[in-house]
Amino acid sequence: MTAVAPLLELDRVSLRYGTTVAVRDVSLTIARGEVVALVGANGAGKTTVMRAISGAMPVAAGAIRFAGQALKAAPHAALRAGIAHCPEGRQVFAQMTVRENLLVGAHTVDRQLIDERVLRMYEMFPVLGERRGQRAGTLSGGEQQMLAMARALMSDPALLLLDEPTMGLAPIMVTAVGDEIARLKDEGMSILLVEETADLTVRIADSMHLMEGGSVALSGTTAEMVDSDVMRRLYLGEHPPTTPTHEPNEAPTA
Ligand SMILES: Nc1ncnc2c1ncn2[C@@H]1O[C@H](COP(=O)(O)OP(=O)(O)OP(=O)(O)O)[C@@H](O)[C@H]1O
Ligand SMILES: [Mg+2]
Fold first, then answer.
1. Which of 28, 110, 172, 177 is 20 to 30 A away from residue 200, measured at CA?
2. Do residues 206 and 221 make contact, with C-beta atoms less than 8 angstroms apart?
3. Has residue 226 been placed in a domain?
4. Burial (CB count <10 Å: 0-12, 13-18, 19+), residue 238
5. Which atom of ligand 1 sits closest to the CA of residue 49?
6. 98-142 pLDDT, tens per residue?
7. CATH, residue 46
8. How many domains does the chain have?
């Protein structure tokens, strides 16, 4: 074999909730080290695609391959293969401490490696080290997002699925989270990103897929997509990069 297989490949994937088809015939690839953005309106199917890649739901048709191998539809299978999911809404365990949340992300990791990984996360996200014994529910929104990303990184994934990492954050935290994602990219992490902040997406993504009604309506390099009218309408019309529309709703950090 001479051609290098993409890290992730979705081949005409369709996904259903019960009898309702939510995603139809979606094909995309992610090369190693590439950041691919999935964009589209609410309900377009972005989260559903991520859930299927993370093994949370089976494909109704088509195939998902990871590093050239068919991916089994089971969360542990995806995690063990090297896919980590940082879900929409962060979903940290509010009653558990920062450290305990990190350990949840480490359940496929060899015991002797866990402490080292936790320390690595404290290095990457110093605020988590400072607050290691604090309950996650008392962290600010931005800190919870750092924790959700660190929890996903505990498995040392080859591919990180990031679903709306800046949703609901104050503008300053949008920037901070964006900087962390950019740093992960610089370190070579492959990322599938769903992100509604246009300038962040444009800054980080190498290529983009626009989803509409469960299908991919348009794909291209980020430069091509920025030039297209569809993208201008979707992103620049609704979320002008210079005027963030998010309400700052973070808990006080005191
Ligand atoms: N658990 C579920 N059961 C039934 N239908 C669902 C379920 N989750 C999502 N859907 C439907 O599937 C479609 C795609 O939803 P999905 O959450 O993937 O969209 P999205 O692009 O992530 O939207 P958003 O930008 O609002 O997060 C929508 O029509 C949604 O109502
Ligand atoms: Mg979603």
1. 28
2. yes
3. yes
4. exposed
5. 18
6. 999 999 999 889 999 999 999 999 999 999 999 999 999 999 999
7. 3.40.50.300
8. 1
